[in-house]
Amino acid sequence: MLGQRTILAWLLVVALFGASPAISQVPDLKTGGSVPTLAPVVRQVTPAVVNISVHGRVREDNPLYRDPFFREFFDIPKQVEKEINSTGSGVIVDARRGYVLTNNHVVEGASVVRITTKDGRQLTAKVIGRDAPTDVAVLQIQDPAGLQALPFGDSDALEVGDFVLAIGNPFGLGQTVTSGLVSALGRTGLSKEGFEDFIQTDAAINPGNSGGALVNLRGELVGINSAIISPGGGNVGIGFAIPANMARIVMEQIVDKGHVERGRIGVSLRELQPSTKQGRNEGAVIAEVAADSPAARAGLRKDDIVVMADDRRIRSASQLRNKIGLARVGQDVKLTIVRGGQTSSAVVKVAPPVQASSTSTRLLH
To answer: Mean per-residue pLDDT for 199-205?
Structure first.
């Protein structure tokens, strides 16, 4: 249910800009006028959001179980597993082939995956592939007849203040819709993997919403709900979604190759500092260029500021690291750089990853 402040916000939007395609008007029986409603866009998108039930077994990661004396004394097998039963959410993004996007952590360790659609159908799915660094997984429904998919939106076009809807299965209650704003963009630091560019939203996201849809007012998928910050375990207005553009790239690689192929161009990056801004508030600073790397051959230099990649604005080093790290090997990436106050461009070909070493661990991979 929309809160009072959210309703007032919708009223202000309608008053200032008129009703968008997603905001319809319904009669107000008390005043004889009309009030805004999001029911049409909700009806349009909710059939593509599904509940996911997972059954499986995962290995217990207890250091004591790796101690041979402890195992022998207590007669514990070398690998101890526990049964898991969990629920989450997913988004149908390809109705013909039955592909569903969700979070990696929703289906990790799954041996049986069951999908429940909005109309109550119980369907079986298999895990096509998972990518832990981005927390994205792709499922395929075995009988895709009669499914409805949610179209992708351009998550790079989102701005702070845009209205969004979060749809999922919180606490296993069943499909639930909440609304809010895009609170921030480019959030990082939630995990140790580094492939993060989270959309922050105050639309209520709770346990069980993981893998569900973050939708714009045009009824397009702009994010996959993934995480919350909550001292008490419930929603406090700080939720995070994986940008749809990132999830789509991961999905395409998983469907094509079964895994994500992470390339490199041979640079290390750092965030803008007062001494390196060159009049810029956004961008990624090249901290180091490896000899004979794709970046070196393209003419990139230390202290160059990358402000665009493939004509998309680069806000931070993390965003550029994600862009290169998720690009396919052999792909050309056009970078717009600022050097000494002058803007120029360079085309860099993404190379295969190299074995980790004291040098290469600092480079994009």
So the answer is: 90
| pLDDT of amino acid 317 | 86
CB under 8 A, 24+ apart: contacts of 248-253: 248/93, 248/152, 249/326, 250/131, 250/134, 250/136, 250/138, 250/326, 251/93, 251/99, 251/101, 251/136, 251/138, 253/326, 253/328
**Active-site entry in 210, 268, 293, 316:** 210
Q: Which of 131, 135, 197, 202 is catalytic?
A: 135
Q: Is 53 a catalytic site residue?
A: no
Whether residue 17 is predicted with pLDDT greater than 50 in this model: the reply is no
> How many CA atoms are closer than 13 Å to the CA of 88, on its beta-carbon side?
28
As given in the structure block, the two tokens for residue 94 are 């390809």
Say if residue 65's pLDDT is above 90: no
- At the second CATH level, the architecture of 267-362 is Roll (2.30)
| Alpha-carbon separation of residue 362 from 262, 266, 321, 356 (angstroms) | 14, 9, 11, 9
Which of 74-83, 97-106, 305-314, 356-365: highest mean pLDDT? 97-106
* 119-138 per-position pLDDT tens digit: 999 999 999 999 998 999 99
Burial class (CB in 10 A: 0-12, 13-18, 19+), 362: middle
Longest dimension (CA), the chain: 79
Which entry of 105, 191, 230, 360 is annotated as an active-site residue? 105
pLDDT the model gives residue 260: 86
Q: Please, are residues 90 and 50 in contact by the beta-carbon 8 Å criterion?
A: yes
Burial 12-38 (b: 16+ CB within 10 A, else e): ebbeeeeebebbeeeeeeeeeeeebbb
- Active-site annotation holds for 135: yes
**Are the C-beta atoms of residues 158 and 244 closer than 8 Å to each other?**
no
Other Cβ atoms less than 10 A from the Cβ of 46: the count is: 20
Does residue 210 carry a catalytic annotation? yes
Q: Tokens 């101690």 belong to which residue?
A: 67
39-77+86-260: which CATH number, 1.10.3720.10, 3.30.460.80, 2.40.10.120, 3.40.50.1820? 2.40.10.120
